[in-house]
Amino acid sequence: MEYVDKVLHDFNDIQIFAKIQFGSQRDTFDMIFDSGSSWVWLATDKCASCVNPHKYSARNSTSFA
Question: How far apart (Å, rounded) are the C-alpha atoms in residues 21 and 40?
Fold first, then answer.
């Protein structure tokens, strides 16, 4: 696994956000980070009730385990 150096941005010291990529196909997502958690939540194509129409597809990624 390679090291990634990422510039984070903030909005009025309330939200920390950045664009990050997932999977071998490098799908780009706008992420708002929860600074009180080490978890990252990502909507997938299996989520029928997720509001964001842009969803991650594991079947299109060769790196998904």
Answer: 12
**Torsional sign, CA 28, 11, 41, 5:** positive
Task: Specify the long-range contacts of residues 7-11, CB closer than 8 Å, at least 24 apart.
Answer: 8/33
Q: 21-65: per-residue pLDDT in tens?
A: 888 888 888 888 777 777 877 888 888 888 878 888 888 888 877
| CA-wise closest residue to 55 among 45, 65, 64, 47 | 45
Amino acid at 62: T
Residue 59: phi and psi, rounded to 5, are -70, -20
**Token digits for 21?**
């990529």
Distance between CA atoms of 53 and 65, rounded to whole angstroms?
A: 23
Read off the pTM.
0.59
